[in-house]
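The data are quoted verbatim here:
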Amino acid sequence: MNRIPKKLIHFFLALLVVALTAPLLGDNGPEHQAVQTPPVKLGTSGGNINDISKKYCCSGTLGSLVTKGNVQYILSNNHVLARSDKAVAGEDVSQPGLVDSNCRPGRIVADYSSAAKLGTNVDAALAAVRSGMVDTSGAILDVGVPASGAATPTVGRGVAKSGRTTGLTCASVQGVNTNVRVSYQAGCGTGKKFTVSYTNQVLIQSTTFSAGGDSGSLIVTSDTAQPLALLFAGSTSTTIGNPIGEVMSKLGGITFVGGNNHAVTCLGGKVAAAEQIAPFPAQAAIDRVTAIKDHYAPGLMRDPAVLAVGVSADPDQPGEAAVIVFVNQHMPLLRPIPRRLETARTLVFRTDEIRAYGWNERAGGGACSAK
């Protein structure tokens, strides 16, 4: 999610004008923040028009199109559409979001409908589409029409996402079955911060895959464009997504508006490839190490410095799985992380706080604080 001080909004809009007149990169990044003529494509700037405070306005990404009970909805995050459980049904959702429209509502394209409450292991919400305002094919900027069938997250799977801040980016799944603590803030740039714990999350380790404002983006498989996860948080080196199967279940059996499988091309016109850690662990190895992780993760995460514990590939033992641990680089560990947990090796990485706003902000004011 993205938040920006009101007094700086004109400055950032001026920067956006410059960006829009500059040569476009392969991900067409500025297009994701621009005003669209309806019916709009998704993977674009948007959010609840009431997500504003005295000093800030906030926005995220209108991620993808789904159906439920013959009604079409925009799928995004609870903290983008539902203002972290504070919204009431019927609140307006605009494109672009407030941060890209002078902290004033853009064109209203949908009405907030419902959300899975924070703390139910997903950060997901729906907004009912207004007639004629959203492309009914489900097209996402730079991705096209996603595949209609969902994919199961697996270690090493190539993925892509289309979001408000970083446009189209590609990477691969680093961790699955991840326990993670995510920081939120009660209001738009204001109010008490609080933490929500999640289990079984998808982790992508990359410094460029996402940034604040990309919250709500649909993560798809790069080779087939199948929905795989719902992006909702990150740090300077990680992105966290809810597994899409759980999102679909928690929102009452939604289905994706989509078409056939197809590849997604990123910068340079190439299909994103999985990292070269081959062969990737077989499911039996993942299951074995997941059982070990599940046993030790609660104890590890009692240490305030431990942010996430998941299951990944062991780069030194091809075909083997390992426990991956992310530690807050600004905090000392209460006790060292063991090199092994039973038969599983541990891989320890340091990063900053994992949060649902303001991650990967560019220095010098070039990016907004973010949801």
About this structure: The CA atoms of residues 284 and 321 lie 9 Å apart. DSSP finds four helices and 20 strands in the chain. The longest strand covers residues 193-205.
